[in-house]
């Protein structure tokens, strides 16, 4: 490939095709050894544009790799961001067909923010995030990687739209202005048994910090958090591999519960 623009387009197309065909590819960082973070975000934008070309619509954004436990699991130590589309969203109580849509899924428990005002970085503070948030809700994000065996470096997950898969938001809602978000405790169960627990502080010290980071980072690319956007603020617990037949549930103190059955 002749230059970065050609490579960005080609690798974005490759990741879209691997998503569509449910197959993995070798790490981009092994084949494009001098790929930069900026290159990776442009690969991601190409991947997302291909999804939009099929009729999907952007409904929000996500921040990934925020907690130390997840960073250590993936050996990726800087947060990243991705785009959520309407095709990724599932309702509480709706079966999630991961066996038909995903490749190597892992579930993580998060706090979702739903925005009532636009946030335009840079210089966004946690107070700005609070003022712009309509409500928070409990959420499962089911991340997936088009990179074989999750063998990812930072530029790989950035290129792959922050390893986006699917997500489900619980029906419960809470006012974040009435919560001490770093102290919110989340307990996760899998198939009726305790699996893990974590606190809001696991995500960069506070989910508010995560959303502010996201708004400011998006701002560097001329992208905003918009009124109505769903924002997934990062996992509070370790990633858990899931297969068809598994049932996951979580409860976040002061916020509510969320559950999902995988098929």
What does the model show?
This protein is an alpha+beta fold and 263 residues long. The chain has helices at 4-21, 28-31, 37-53, 68-74, 98-101, 126-132, 154-159, 207-219; strands at residues 58-64, 80-85, 89-91, 106-115, 133-143, 166-169, 185-190, 193-199, 230-235, 240-241, 247-252, 256-261. Strands 1, 2, 3, 4, 5, 6, 9 and 10 form an eight-stranded mixed β-sheet that branches. A hairpin with a 3-residue loop joins β11 (247-252) and β12 (256-261). The model has no long low-confidence stretch (mean pLDDT 93).
Topology:
Elements: H1 4-21, H2 28-31, H3 37-53, E1 58-64, H4 68-74, E2 80-85, E3 89-91, H5 98-101, E4 106-115, H6 126-132, E5 133-143, H7 154-159, E6 166-169, E7 185-190, E8 193-199, H8 207-219, E9 230-235, E10 240-241, E11 247-252, E12 256-261
Parallel strand pairs: 1-9, 3-6
Antiparallel strand pairs: 1-2, 4-5, 4-9, 4-10, 5-6, 7-8, 7-11, 11-12
